[in-house]
Amino acid sequence: MTVAKKENKEWKEYAKEITSEARFKPEALEGIRVVDVSIASPSASITSSLLAELGADVIKIEPPEGDPLREVSPFGEFYLNNTGLDFLVESRNKKFITLNLEKEEGRELFKRMVSRFDVVIESFPPGWMDENGIGYRQLREIKPDLIYLAFSAYGHFGPKAEELSKIPDSNLLGLANSGFMYSTRELPEAGEPYNLPTAPGFWMGYYLCALWGVCGVLLSLIYRNRTGEGQMIDVTSTEAINKITQQLIWSHAFGEPLEIGILPLDPAVFSYAFYKIKDGYAFASGYTDANFKALVTQIEAEHLMEKYPTVFDRIPLEKQKQAYKDVQEAIKKFTFNELAERMVRWKEEGKEGVAIYAKVMTPKEVLGDKFWWDKGNFTVYKDKRLSLLLPTTPWRLSESPFRLKWLRKGVGENNHQVYRELLGFGKEDLDDLEKNGIL
Amino acid sequence: MNYFEWTEKLFEAEKTFEKPEALENIRVLDLTVVLFGPEAGSLLAEFGAEVIRIEPPGEPPGMGDFVRSVDIWAKFWKETSQALMTYQRNKYFTSINLRHPKGKNLLLKLVKKSDVVLENFVPGTMDKLGLSYRYLKEVNPKLIYLSLSGYGQWGERWNWPSFDASGQAMSGASAVSGYEGRVPLKLPFYPGDLIAATAGFMCTLAALYYRGKTGKGQYIDVAQVETFPRIMGSIFSYVHLKGKDKPRMGNRDPSIAPANMYKTSDGKLIVISVLTSEEFRRLCKAMEKPNLIEDERFATTSARLKKENADEIDRIVAEWVSKKSLDDLMELAKRYGFSASPVRNSLEVYEDEHLRARKSVWLYDDPMYGEMVATGSPAKLSKTPGRIKWVGCPVGYHNRYILKRFLGLSEEEIKELIKEGVVVYWADFLGRRPPKDLNYEKDPIYNW
Q1: Has this prediction a pTM greater than 0.95?
Q2: Are residues B204 and B88 in the same domain?
Q3: Which residue, A428, B36, B165, B257, could crosslink B193 as a Cys pair with Cβ 3.0–4.6 Å?
Q4: What is the pLDDT of residues A78-105, one digit of tens each?
Q5: Same structural domain for residues B206 and B308?
Q6: Distance (Å, whole) CA A198 – CA A241
Q7: Is any Cβ of chain A less than 8 angstroms from the Cβ of B101?
């Protein structure tokens, strides 16, 4: 079998050509209607953003007074049209309507629309939707192929699900309850608070939980396409984080727990650490023998190769502590550019092994780095009411890419359009519903 | 029926293996190495895709993926790398030399019969071999091709090598984590690999759904460095508006107050997090401080988040927590409904009966390693749950099964390919060979 020789274009040119433009391309989830009735759930909000960026028609249902998430913003600052930043950055491509699910009449309207929904996303305490007649058990009677995604702290089944059902999920809860946080701390000798459990400085729990929400919906859509059947999906942030701490759980099968905090070291590889360098901090890696040799040679500390010749001399904790100190001592004389030049020269000279360096950049430095702008990783979104920098969705699909279309609509801003489309309601109908506290 | 009895039946975790798989009949060729790529393949395999791992033969041949030399504390339990035992799940292990024309030919034949190709070599590597998307889509126009890399396939740093921590460093994720004045936090357990791998898995699912609808395949470019800003919420928006970096705050959260880790009266650690005013009211009731609900410094979320007010409520909660035991606090969280959790160590997670019943802590009997534990799939699907079947195998362990089943090769042809170094089995070396107590010579799948 032979494959025709392709045009002489370089690979990076070809890859750019097929992945850099999203507009005008088809949308993966075109024709899929997603209804997000979550309240105060960043995980649900992020999930419905990503589905909307994949082309789903996402309707966010808020209570008449609005989702309390609208108020969430760093230090309570920067309200743009009275909306917080955390809400704004995940208000992508959604329509916003109001509906009071606390009232029977609101729930009746919800049920009347369910046959038109493909996916429902909710974050109420497990059992609340069911108790009110709009849980998966009831909705699937109306719409048998419905996909129903529920976010909660401890899940909708399992021996403790009922007992813990009133506890709301949170970023910190997922990080603490999964074991991630316990092991994220410096060596005991660092002293408090540095040797105490530490959470990442961003919403890793909420975001990974949301990625799993999207995966659950996509898996269910694939299965529904094949069989016509819907299903329920149950996602918690604890379990999402637990999935990436698999190394921690696994070690118990062998009675070798990894409980101790060992930052800046690593239980499985050395060197794989951040160091103080002449102009800030840098990541320096070289953990196989050849790569470690490349690293210590480039930082002019070849004697360390004799001191730590194999992985068995570098990885065990006490040896690694000393090795870290030795590498730190050698690397602190260099600036990042000097390290990067050595890395490149090494490669050009065709020497064995690869040392990898990366500069520890702050967000401000990242925003000043041309790389991200050339790649379109950030955009300054502008419309008649709003101007805001935000990260774009960076995962590039050549045929049916993610894309940002609009941000932020006001509370109930799309009521007229959505209720007319789904229920044929006119202005008077909506005025009545509003008066009665339903919208 | 009580709701939780009903959901117990709906999800019936114990009957996972009696349920269908979402990705049944999807065949994946997994050409990845180390962790980032392998994890994406494993996630597909957990939901039922048939994942054929095509491992580079290594140097010398039979050494395979160099990650086989990596292990926690260099212990090598059962003579195997932990990287194999956790990040390689439910896959068939083959090793084919793609630099040999006959090896490349075998791959092209497999591509014809497959749905997805995964790779995470330095960008451009597959193109030089004539195995990049632009070549393989000619062989199989419906192909979905996922490339995972450090900085993406194009742009200024397109061919830079990268690891998980490069992503953490270059994106700002580490710089915002930990405490001022300390070495920035290198987040453990390789989130730069594993979160970006989850994103790659997610994109592959979107592409599979799109293909189901239109018959069209596509190319996907997922980069670990680029993944972080998207999962860092409003941080970049904030920094852009303020023109300066946000301070590192340990366990505090600028968008949630109170939110922190606190010490209990019995010397344990708890996290408490209050996102909305409603949740704040519940906490105040639990604290028996109803006056705080009306206090204008705390009554609204925006007021609570102002720095001085956030500091004050943090102090109030810390003081309250310091007088209560962890058990009492968790009782109050259950009763009043605010977000709280003990800061658990991995043994507590491992022994958690709730997570075991939900198959998130997954105990099983591995065909090669015996009693093992893995983490289950976080998306609990009532009809098509994910599942763990087995983990990483020696280099080339399933060569015969795959080459006979899909390409119809004869025993003689396979022997010839082995002799020519096209098809490779493990070297007799730590991390590559089968565990000592395994009688692989009698394993039917090895002998296929």
Answers
A1: yes
A2: yes
A3: B36
A4: 777 789 999 999 999 999 999 999 999 9
A5: no
A6: 14
A7: no
Assigned domain for B247 exists:
no
Cα distance between residue A272 and residue A216, in whole Å? 33
How many residues are listed for chain A in this entry?
A: 439
If asked whether residues B275 and B335 sit together in one domain, one would say yes
CA distances from B416 to A353, B55, B95, B397, B421 (A): 33, 19, 15, 17, 9
| Inside any domain, residue B220 | yes
Query: Which tens digits make up the pLDDT trace of A350-377?
Result: 999 989 999 999 999 999 999 999 999 9
Q: Determine the average pLDDT of the residues in A127-147.
A: 98
How do the residues of chain B divide into helix, strand and coil, expressed in percent and rounded to 5?
Answer: 40, 15, 45
**Is position B328 annotated as part of the catalytic site?**
no
Q: A347 vs A112, which has greater pLDDT?
A: A112
Q: Which residue has the tokens 């959470």?
A: A199
User: Chain A interface, mutation test: which of B235, B311, B331, B429, most A Cβ atoms within 10 Å?
Assistant: B235
Model pLDDT for residues B29-65, shown as the tens digit of each residue? 999 999 999 999 999 999 999 999 999 999 999 999 9
Query: Residue A204: which of B191, B219, B248 has the nearest Cβ?
Result: B191
Measured between beta carbons, which residues in chain A are less than 8 angstroms from residue B117?
Answer: none
User: Considering the domain boundaries, does residue B377 fall inside one?
Assistant: yes
Establish if B420 touches chain A: CB-CB under 8 angstroms: no
One domain, residues B122 and B218:
yes
Q: What is the pLDDT of residue A1?
A: 45
Task: Find how far residue A295's CA is from the centre of its chain.
Answer: 33
**CB A54, CB A141: distance < 8 Å:** no
End-of-domain residue from the set B343, B369, B384: B343
Regarding whether B329 and B363 lie in a shared domain, the answer is no
Query: Locate tokens 């002998």: which residue?
Result: B447
Q: CA nearest A374 in B: which residue?
A: B155
For residues B10 and B58, membership in a common domain is answered with yes
Q: Which domain holds residue B429?
A: 3-230+357-442
Q: How far is CA B323 from the centre of its chain?
A: 39
Report the 10 Å Cβ neighbour count for A368: 11
Q: Write the CA distances from A115 to A35, A149, A217, B88, B347, integer angstroms.
A: 12, 16, 17, 41, 46
What is the tally of structural domains in chain B? 2
Chain A residues whose beta carbon lies within 8 Å of the beta carbon of residue B236? 363, 366-367, 378, 389-391
Neighboring chain A residues of B212 at a CB cutoff of 8 Å: 222, 225-226
- What contacts A372, CB < 8 A, 6 or more positions away? A366, A378, B229
In a domain, B223, yes or no: yes
